[in-house]
């Protein structure tokens, strides 16, 4: 039926995993349709808040198994991880709301608002589907458009994590704490984890784009999940730019070449995996007809497509930087999901400010270190340094293990070590390293390519508030004590720029980050939409298509989410070096 | 027989690594709790983030939270009466409340790792 490797003799469970915007949900939908068309009985499970699986099939689905009448043998189910986490919070907090003081209740809710809670709550919803229950008995295949992280699975595998609170309903909790309030039995979670790690039953499909950063990230996911037993892995490179499109369009040629270079330099860990390439399609992946065509290769380019798009004038990063420069000093933090170009944009802003004669300290967590190396010492007024997230996290881990782990028994220590592998830990470690530099922002510009989430700030500030009280008690004359949180909340001192791409899922992810910051009393100052094709003049039909797709997303950002925004066009050349970075701001054509 | 109840502040991780930097004190205290448990003392811990009902159901604890806020935790009750607030007890204090001897040969809890 198809020559795609990941579709060859698929086992019962298929998981698609990858970062937001790579096309997991489209692939999961197309796979489900393909298998159902081959007379397999299929259940499609979506956890993508932007998925619109229902819209794709023209029906309302929601949190219950619903038959897709337009595709025989296919049913679908939508899980909303945020709603699952909220339901969990309500179960814990509901009974004490109005009973305990409001501030106390708010504090409890914040503890339960982290990424871990959402992860675990979503996994809880999966559990029944992975263990053979009445719910899934009727299906040959169950297809998920997401997969649990290594951190979640490892926690569930640790005996220490379970010993106290699930057996007795209390005791000390870890990142697994949320499970304490979930009803299922340990045996059921164990069965779910076993099903995941069983290569006879489970296949993991890693979805990536042909971009260096994305491939690096996927390689990490691969190694992490393989280490805990999910060895049956396939790789899909989605949305590859076809060579046929490169004629007479220099940007198209550059994109094609960049992708081919990324593929040639694919991380070794991935090069061993069975791999499929899926070519970028000249149509939107909405509707049955379009999805049926996604997994079919060698489609002729549709003659109806436009082959001319003129660059649209959007607000430029250069005018945002003008406004930033007026203040003379301050903390500028760029925030966004991996791969949206935070480091490059931070460097561009820093170089531009320094070019104006303003003193700038640029601090990046750039994993490749190229950028910081090429910029160091090249410009007056510009100081560049780099914080290596892995080094900082490791230092923090060692510190905690040596100071706090020394008294623990083997199980307790294993649990503490796993807590220290949580995404929160890296965020805290990096933020602590950054916060040493934050203080300089009173005298000059400090530009950073990362920012802590609102959740982390609220948790960190819990001690901040406490220490503030202590200091006040010790010496009432100290009234100007300020925490990093207070500095970040003050728009005079700090500007947070949210970076995203003009695509549905990345915009939604950025909006979630914004909501999280607002919970901590921080209002992002502006949004930057990076790598926009709509801001360029293009001729390739595929790029024209992409340009017109971007318009709706840019409109959403400018009218709903952002106080002010800028659009940075997709560049032909990687903006490395002072000269190209300066041009990046100007080149809003 | 004496009952000791410990009402801990909210934390999503017992180690505190996901959030605010929990004191070394807490780790030492956990060891002390095990120590008194082994001597058959009734000691219970409640975490505000996971068992808020235990806080709401106890009028002493509830009044304490209303007066002083969650920042003032931990709160330690001995037989229902407030014995200590704002810090964790030393092993010697636990032993005194429970009426058990503090054996000298047992390793002392190591508080004050620079945090106090």
TrEMBL record, chain A:
Please list the reactions this protein catalyses.
arsenite(in) + ATP + H2O = arsenite(out) + ADP + phosphate + H(+)
Q: Which family does it belong to?
A: Belongs to the arsA ATPase family.
Q: Which PANTHER family match?
A: ARSENICAL PUMP-DRIVING ATPASE ARSENITE-TRANSLOCATING ATPASE (PTHR10803), ATPASE GET3 (PTHR10803:SF3)
The cross-references to SUPFAM superfamilies, in alphabetical order and at most eight, read: P-loop containing nucleoside triphosphate hydrolases
Stretches assigned to the AAA+ ATPase domain: 10-229, 328-521
Listed Gene3D superfamilies = P-loop containing nucleotide triphosphate hydrolases
NCBIfam families in the record: arsen_driv_ArsA, GET3_arsA_TRC40
**InterPro entries to which the protein is assigned, alphabetical:** AAA+_ATPase, Ars_ATPase, ArsA/GET3_ATPase-like, ATPase_ArsA/GET3, P-loop_NTPase
**Keywords attached to this entry:** Arsenical resistance, ATP-binding, Nucleotide-binding, Translocase
- What one GO molecular function would you report for this record? ATPase-coupled arsenite transmembrane transporter activity
EC id: 7.3.2.7
Q: What is this protein called?
A: Arsenical pump-driving ATPase
Q: What class of enzyme is it?
A: translocase
Q: Tell me the function of this protein.
A: Anion-transporting ATPase.
TrEMBL record, chain B:
Q: In terms of domain of life, where is this protein from? A: Bacteria
Give any Pfam family that matches.
ArsD
Which one GO biological process term can you cite for this protein?
response to arsenic-containing substance
Q: Give the range the annotation lists for the signal sequence.
A: none
Gene Ontology molecular function, alphabetical: DNA binding
Which NCBIfam families does this UniProt record tie to the protein? chaperon_ArsD (NF033727)
**Entry protein name:** Arsenical resistance operon trans-acting repressor ArsD
């Amino acid at each position: 039926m198809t020559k795609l490797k990941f579709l060859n003799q698929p086992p019962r469970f298929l998981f698609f995993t990858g970062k937001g915007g790579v096309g997991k949900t489209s692939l999961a939908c197309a796979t489900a349709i393909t298998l159902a068309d081959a007379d397999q009985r299929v259940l499609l499970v979506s956890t993508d808040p932007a998925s619109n699986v229902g819209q794709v099939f023209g029906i309302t689905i929601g949190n219950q198994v619903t038959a897709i009448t337009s595709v025989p043998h296919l049913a679908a189910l939508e899980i909303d991880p945020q709603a699952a986490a909220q339901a969990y919070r309500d179960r814990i907090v509901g009974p004490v709301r109005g009973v305990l003081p409001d501030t106390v209740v708010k504090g409890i809710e914040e503890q339960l608002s982290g990424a871990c809670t959402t992860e675990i709550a979503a996994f809880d919803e999966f559990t029944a589907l992975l263990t053979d229950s009445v719910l899934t008995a009727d299906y040959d295949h169950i297809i998920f458009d997401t997969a649990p992280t290594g951190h979640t699975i490892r926690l569930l595998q640790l005996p220490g994590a379970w010993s106290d609170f699930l057996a007795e309903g209390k005791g000390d909790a870890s990142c697994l704490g949320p499970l304490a309030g979930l009803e299922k039995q340990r045996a059921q979670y164990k069965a779910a984890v076993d099903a995941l790690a069983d290569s006879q039953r489970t296949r993991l499909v890693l979805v990536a784009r042909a971009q260096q950063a994305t491939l690096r990230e996927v390689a990490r996911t691969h190694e992490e999940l393989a280490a805990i037993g999910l060895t049956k892995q396939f790789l899909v490179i989605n949305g590859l730019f076809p060579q046929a499109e490169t004629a007479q369009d220099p940007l198209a040629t550059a994109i094609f070449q960049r992708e081919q270079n990324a593929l040639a330099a694919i991380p070794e860990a991935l090069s061993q995996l069975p791999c499929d390439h899926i070519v970028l399609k000249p149509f939107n992946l909405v509707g049955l007809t379009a999805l049926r065509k996604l997994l079919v290769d060698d489609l002729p380019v549709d003659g109806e497509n436009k082959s001319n798009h003129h660059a649209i004038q959007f607000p430029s990063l250069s005018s945002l930087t003008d406004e930033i420069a007026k203040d003379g000093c301050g903390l500028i933090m760029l925030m966004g999901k991996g791969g949206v170009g935070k480091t490059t944009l931070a460097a561009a802003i820093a170089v531009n400010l320094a070019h104006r004669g303003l003193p700038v300290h640029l601090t990046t967590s750039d994993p490749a270190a190229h950028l910081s190396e090429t910029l160091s010492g090249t410009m007056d007024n510009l100081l560049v340094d780099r914080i290596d997230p892995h080094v900082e996290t490791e230092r923090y881990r060692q510190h905690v293990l040596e100071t706090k782990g020394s008294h623990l028994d083997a199980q307790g220590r294993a649990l503490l070590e796993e807590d220290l592998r949580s995404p929160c830990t890296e965020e805290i470690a990096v933020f602590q390293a950054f916060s040493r530099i934050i203080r300089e922002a009173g005298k000059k510009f400090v530009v950073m390519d990362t920012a802590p989430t609102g959740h982390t700030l609220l948790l960190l500030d819990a001690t901040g508030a406490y220490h503030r009280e202590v200091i006040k008690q010790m010496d009432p004359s100290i009234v100007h004590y300020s925490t990093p949180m207070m500095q970040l909340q003050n728009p005079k001192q700090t500007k947070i720029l949210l970076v995203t791409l003009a695509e549905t899922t990345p915009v939604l992810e950025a909006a979630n980050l914004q909501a999280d910051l607002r919970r901590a009393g921080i209002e992002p100052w502006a949004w930057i939409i990076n790598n926009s094709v709509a801001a360029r003049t293009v001729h390739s039909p595929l790029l024209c298509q992409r340009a017109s797709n971007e318009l709706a997303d840019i409109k959403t950002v400018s009218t709903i989410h952002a106080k002010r925004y800028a659009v940075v066009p997709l560049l032909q050349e990687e903006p490395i070096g002072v000269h190209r970075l300066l041009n990046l701001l100007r080149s809003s054509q | 027989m004496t009952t000791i109840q410990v009402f801990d502040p909210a934390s999503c991780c017992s180690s505190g690594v996901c959030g605010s930097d929990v004191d070394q004190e807490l780790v030492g205290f956990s060891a002390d709790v095990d120590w008194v448990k082994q001597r058959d003392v009734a000691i219970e811990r409640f975490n505000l983030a996971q068992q808020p009902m235990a806080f709401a159901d106890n009028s002493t604890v509830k009044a304490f939270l209303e007066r002083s806020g969650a920042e003032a935790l931990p709160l330690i009750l001995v037989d229902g009466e407030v014995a200590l607030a704002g810090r964790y007890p030393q092993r010697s204090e636990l032993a005194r409340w429970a009426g058990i001897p503090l054996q000298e040969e047992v390793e002392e809890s190591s508080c004050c790792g620079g945090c106090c």
